[in-house]
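Structure tokens please, single chain.
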Amino acid sequence: MPIPLLDLKAQLDALRPELLQALTEVLDSTQYIMGEKVKELEHKLAEYCEVGYAIGVSSGTDALLMALMALDVEVGDLIITTPYSFFATAGVIARLKATPVLVDIEARTFNLSPEHLREWFKHHPNQIKKVKAILPVHLFGQCADMDPILAIARQYDIAVIEDAAQAIGARYPSRTGVHRAGSLGLLGCFSFFPSKNLGAIGDGGLVVTSDSALAEKLTKLRNHGSYPKYYHSLIGGNFRLDAIQAAVLLVKLPYLDSWHSARQQHAAYYDRAFANTIVQPPYLAYPRECHIYNQYVTTIPERRDDLRRYLQDNQIGQEVYYPLSFHEQPCFRYLGYRRGDFPASEYAAAHSLALPIYPELTEAMQAEVVEKILKFY
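Here you go.
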């Protein structure tokens, strides 16, 4: 039977009556941009993410862009981040004419390596004053190791922006307690792209913070820097969240933790099935309930691309996140990095493979995925 990487229709069918009612309410209100639905969503997501303020925006990319704009990032500034993530992480830095400074990932977690980050500061003392922010990514739904990253940031008085686009609801067991993704740094950024655990029916995003002055600035930035209307104290952009997307997300939010739980159960099944085989399951850095499995990304040491073609031929969904690290993308050649500079990122790009993990996946479907992969080898 065909097994897609993600089946959005299965989720839609379960929620169709609630979603249609929510969409009808927005249509009847004729309030399509911002409005009460957005305010309600922001209030509930601030509570969910354990922060003081949540600002709904037009996409996860714009969330990252606004976070940098709120810190007045400009030409000459350095932003330290990972080479291995969705393009937006580095793309927004370049859009503001700042410079992405890349630090390799941990081989097991795919997240920014605190050890390599510490080494960068040790070996680049003359550039530290130019660093405006550190931008770790909670990749695939598991938090980066934030305690040492935050300690380094405090040492040099540098802001931390969390790219939590794939990690809403993920948890990090810090020395100060268990915290939600996005609540640890000065700013946290989320995406509601339809494939996310909490997905809209189009683009949407969120910036969170517990800093009231930053929250006020972000609220202005998303609407061309305007407050009150037609009075502009700064230059922002059109980064507003549509009311229709907010209404959809309000319907889905109460189900989010149960969807996380289903993904965690599916991950546990795969982990058991692939134990002592050539397929290396995702590394769990923390207890399983801390990982929301936005993707289930395995490491395939041998013949990854041959396996992909075999699975495609057998109608089993899979994906490579991501086939090229940032330093190998043509548009970032000007940064001066070369192949071999970030071996862990390059290995992940060449050997990672994501398998179906969505909540509606059945055990029979998972068994077929496992059977086909093991049969191939």
